[in-house]
C-alpha cells in the first residue's frame, strides 16, 4: 500500500511516545516523533470520532466486551475515517462491530 494511503492516529502516536518515554530514552522518543511526522498523516480524535466513541463504548460495555481506552479511541477514529485498521493486536479490536481489520503480521 502506498505511503500516502497509510495513516496513524493521534492516540497511537501518544501511546508510542509514552512507551519511548517510559523506557527512559530521550533519543528514542525523538526518533519516534521524527518517524511519525515524516512518514504518515496523523488522524485526530475529532467530533466525528467522539460521536462514534460514545455509542461504541456504551454498546461494548452493555455486551460485557469492554475495550481499553486507547484502543476504543483508535477504533472510533478508524470508523469515523472509514478506513481499515492494520494491527497485530487483532483479538481486542475484533470486538468492535463493523471495524475492518487487517493483520499484516500474519499472527
Helices and strands: which structural class?
A: mainly alpha
Mean pLDDT: 91
Question: Which fold does the CATH topology of the largest domain refer to?
Answer: Rossmann fold
Rg over CA atoms:
14 Å
Number of helices, where a helix is a run of at least 4 consecutive DSSP H or I residues:
5
Look at the structure and give the CATH class of the largest domain.
Alpha Beta
- Uncertain spans: none
What is the name of the CATH architecture of the largest domain?
A: 3-Layer(aba) Sandwich
| Proportion of residues in β-strands | 5-15%
What string gives the helices and strands in order? EHHEHHEHE
Would you count the extended β strands for me?
4
Residue share in helix: 55-70%
Give the number of domains.
2
CATH homologous group name of the largest domain: 5'-nuclease
Q: Report the principal-axis shape.
A: globular
Question: What spatial order of strands do you see in the largest sheet?
Answer: 1-2
Report the sheet with the most strands, covering strand number, pairing sense and barrel closure: 2 strands, parallel
Q: What descriptors fit this protein?
A:
107 residues, mainly alpha, Rossmann fold, two-stranded parallel ribbon, two-stranded parallel sheet, 4 strands, 9% strand, globular
Explain this structure.
The protein has helices spanning 10-22, 26-39, 47-62, 69-81, 90-93; strands at residues 7-9, 41-43, 85-86, 101-102. The chain is mainly α. It folds into two domains: 1-43; 44-107, 5'-nuclease (Rossmann fold, 3-Layer(aba) Sandwich), CATH 3.40.50.1010. It has a two-stranded parallel ribbon. Strands 3-4 form a two-stranded parallel ribbon. α5 links the parallel β3 (85-86) and β4. α1 (10-22) runs antiparallel to α2, α1 runs antiparallel to α4 and α3 (47-62) crosses α4 (69-81). The radius of gyration is 14 Å and the shape is globular. The two termini are 19 Å apart. The model has no long low-confidence stretch (mean pLDDT 91).
Amino acid at each position: 500500500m502506498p505511503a500516502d494511503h497509510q495513516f496513524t492516529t493521534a492516540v497511537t502516536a501518544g501511546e508510542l511516545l509514552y512507551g519511548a518515554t517510559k523506557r527512559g530514552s530521550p533519543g528514542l522518543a525523538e526518533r519516534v516523533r521524527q518517524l511519525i511526522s515524516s512518514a504518515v498523516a496523523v488522524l485526530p480524535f475529532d467530533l466525528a470520532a467522539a460521536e462514534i466513541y460514545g455509542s461504541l463504548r456504551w454498546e461494548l460495555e452493555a455486551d460485557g466486551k469492554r475495550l481499553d481506552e486507547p484502543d476504543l479511541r483508535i477504533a472510533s477514529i478508524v470508523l469515523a475515517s472509514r478506513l481499515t485498521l492494520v494491527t497485530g493486536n487483532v483479538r481486542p479490536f475484533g470486538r468492535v462491530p463493523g471495524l475492518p481489520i487487517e493483520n499484516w503480521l500474519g499472527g
